[in-house]
Specification:
Helices cover 81% and strands 0% of the residues. The chain has 18 helices and no strands.
């Protein structure tokens, strides 16, 4: 006799479980966005150093150039975690607890390996990377200081991405959010103390921002590990599950590779934008960097819902419930689009006060406001793209998710931005490249959803009949 389903992803109303899982993940993701925005806010208001006017704006520029590497680290952490989470949810739906434990252990092993890779980059590759974007010695020095600390000590960031998905994939989003909140608060508290030299701490400037960031990440990791090994009884643990298994790793990355590439494309896009916008002005680069970190609060809310969509649909896909998969797709699209619509309204209404937080020069502030007003027009299309990428990952259609990512992040916006920089009114036009990318990607994503639905969801009706016939033959 088949065991009763006990996980809420397979029993509760889809709209309810999506909100119960999605809201904590949204809070967690928005807090993750605070790491970068808080660093930028505090370093932007650094006092001028001798002989360097507008030291804070130089520092923000350095953070903008360093940001793609930080995003790449997050890409591998979250992407690997997505693969682990989706595969884990499916194994739990199939009641295969041994394979679920192996998936979790191999995910942790992969996080350790990735940490070592970025450690090596921190020792050998930072200068080459930064010099590909700027020749300014002040920006280079600040960027080198900040990025070296963040890469050499990136294990907190990478491993937390794995443990977070282990908790989320079993529905324990409150615990993962608690860990994220603790890390974010650590970063917020120590940023001004270490940057400005408060409470007896030496004044560390941009290095203080980096140290506060990695300290926050380590706090999140430690708490997530404690929660995983003491509270998460659905997943068996033990050192034997850390042993790398080729089949399991291939399974993780058959799902996760598209998520890694999707996240990495954001890094490559930002890197490309830094170079392309640099042909317009340094102010354009800084303005886009500030805008990008502000928009992360909106996008990370969308990503939070996507990360609820994926395990819910994946679990019910593994369980063979066509009805619940269909409900998951519908609720995911509606909820994510609503969140992004709210983001559009906020950007349109509060662009000026948001830009003024950073103490920018008038030219940079004007460009930042323009970016918020124009790029946010594509947020609703972005919501469709984000939700459907979660659906594609859950239904083992990673290539579809990758196609959408390439269109919205690279294939459309970068060539358009490059063309716009060649025009006389470049500073007016360059930001329109981004909503254009979201619009094109959304149209393609809907077409891909129809194909995926026919291939993955429609046949599920036959699965149920086959299982019922098999059960009947055993009687």
């Amino acid at each position: 006799m088949e065991k009763a389903v006990t996980n809420k992803m397979g029993t509760e109303k889809i709209s309810k479980v999506m909100l119960s899982m999605g809201i904590p993940i949204i809070v967690s993701m928005v807090l993750q966005a605070m790491y970068n925005i808080v660093d930028s806010m505090f370093v932007a208001n650094m006092a001028d150093e001798p002989g360097i006017a507008h030291t804070g704006e130089y520092a923000v520029n350095a953070l903008t150039l360093a940001f793609p590497v930080q995003m790449l680290i997050v890409a591998f952490g979250i992407g690997t975690g997505v693969g682990v989470g989706a595969m884990l949810s499916r194994m739990l739906g199939l009641k295969d607890t041994e394979e679920a434990a192996r998936v979790a252990g191999n995910g942790v092993f992969l996080g350790i390996v990735l940490s070592a890779v970025f450690f090596i980059f921190g020792l050998t590759g930072i200068d080459v990377y930064l010099k590909s974007q700027t020749s300014d010695p002040i920006v280079l020095g600040m960027g080198r200081t900040y990025l070296r600390i963040c890469t050499l000590l990136c294990f907190g960031n990478l491993l937390y991405g794995i443990y977070e998905k282990l908790l989320q994939s079993t529905g324990k989003t409150i615990l993962s959010t608690t860990a994220q909140i603790a890390g974010a608060l650590t970063n917020i508290v120590f940023d001004p103390i270490m940057i400005y030299g408060l409470l007896g701490c030496p004044r560390m400037g941009i290095a203080g921002a980096a140290w506060a960031t990695v300290m926050g990440q380590m706090v999140s990791l430690v708490l997530a590990m404690i929660f995983q090994y003491t509270k998460n009884k659905e997943i068996k643990s033990g050192f034997r599950y850390l042993k790398p298994d080729g089949r399991t790793i291939r399974g993780i990355y058959s799902i996760g590779i598209s998520a890694i590439i999707m996240q990495a494309l954001m890094s490559f896009m930002t890197y490309g934008v830094n170079i392309i916008f640099g042909a317009v002005s340094a102010s354009a680069v800084t303005a886009y960097g500030i805008f990008y970190k502000i928009q992360q609060f909106i996008f990370f809310a969308g990503f939070g819902l996507r990360d609820a969509i994926t395990p819910i649909i994946s679990y019910n896909y593994g369980m063979g419930s066509q009805k619940r998969v269909k409900e998951g797709i519908k609720c995911g699209l509606i909820d994510t689009t609503v969140v992004m619509l709210i983001g559009l309204v906020l950007m349109q209404l509060f662009a000026h006060p948001l830009a003024q937080i950073f103490g920018l020069t008038q030219e940079t502030e004007t460009l930042c406001v323009r970016a918020m007003h124009i790029i946010s027009l594509g947020f609703v299309f972005a919501g469709i793209n984000i939700a459907l990428q979660g659906v594609f990952q859950a239904l083992q259609s990673g290539n579809s998710s990758l196609i959408v990512s390439v269109l919205r992040l690279l294939a459309v916006p970068l060539p358009l931005a490059y063309v716009f920089t060649r025009m006389a009114n470049a500073e007016q036009l360059i930001f329109w490249a981004f909503p254009a990318g979201e619009l094109v990607a959304a149209a393609v994503a809907v077409i891909l959803l129809k194909r995926c639905y026919r291939k993955r969801v429609v046949p599920m009706a036959n699965w149920k009949r086959t299982r019922e016939e098999a059960a009947g033959s055993d009687v």
